[in-house]
């Protein structure tokens, strides 16, 4: 009399790694809702900029805009004298930056002046009083460089960045790049900004940016996938034990 063991299921050593790879690929290749004109910040020299605290006060001495962020300028311009295109990457250094601007009920203008008076970077935030939502609507840069003659002036008044709700602060811990024009983009680092609805000198409750939400979602998806694989392994193990206790087939 010959006894043979029951047929086994597909080898888990092959099946599980393939399933894990598929799940991880799906988690990383998910297509989240994009933020208009916003991309992951490129890694360029100089080094990561220092975060600075910038604030504006209104006519009553009340803080009306508060920002805590690191800024890095990516500038491209043509030098007529040398017939070349120059690219500059410049950090905004908080300790050598002067802050000015103004606030009213619908608009907040933050102007950062660096390197003496040679670079003026201006942010304009606009509040929609119907929806109680604000956003960065305009950025301009007026600067001089030794390589070019005359001022370097760029401006875009049709932007839609750093969107938040009245009374709340916009927060984005991830590095991102705000495209202003083809000549200027701005890398932002660990931004927290609130241009309206401040109470004292403290930020309101934070509203996370899409990049931060996506960064939090991926570990959750991967963790859930791993937990599912553990369950599959356990079920397969129990089924295998049950079949082995059922005895052998007799031929």
Structural class: alpha+beta
CATH architecture of the largest domain: Beta Barrel
Biggest sheet, open or closed, and with what strands and sense? 8 strands, mixed
How would you sum up the global shape? extended
How many beta-strand runs?
A: 16
- Mean pLDDT comes to 79
Distance between the termini: 7 Å
Total helices: the number is: 2
Proportion of residues in helical segments: 10-25%
CATH hierarchy class name of the largest domain: Mainly Beta
- Taken as a percent bin, the fraction of beta residues is 35-45%
Write the element-wise H/E pattern from the N-terminal end onward.
Answer: EHEEEEEEEEEEEEEEHE
Oligomer: single chain
Number of domains: 2
Q: Which keywords apply here?
A:
2 domains, alpha+beta, cell membrane, 21% helix, Lysosome-associated membrane glycoprotein 1, transmembrane, Porin, LAMP_CS, 251 residues
Architecture blueprint of SSEs:
Layout: E1 3-4, H1 12-28, E2 38-40, E3 52-57, E4 63-79, E5 84-91, E6 98-103, E7 107-114, E8 119-128, E9 133-143, E10 152-156, E11 161-165, E12 169-172, E13 176-179, E14 184-194, E15 206-208, H2 210-245, E16 249-250
Parallel strand pairs: 12-15
Antiparallel strand pairs: 1-16, 2-13, 3-4, 4-5, 4-14, 6-7, 7-8, 8-9, 9-10, 9-11, 12-14, 13-14
Helix pairs in contact: 1-2
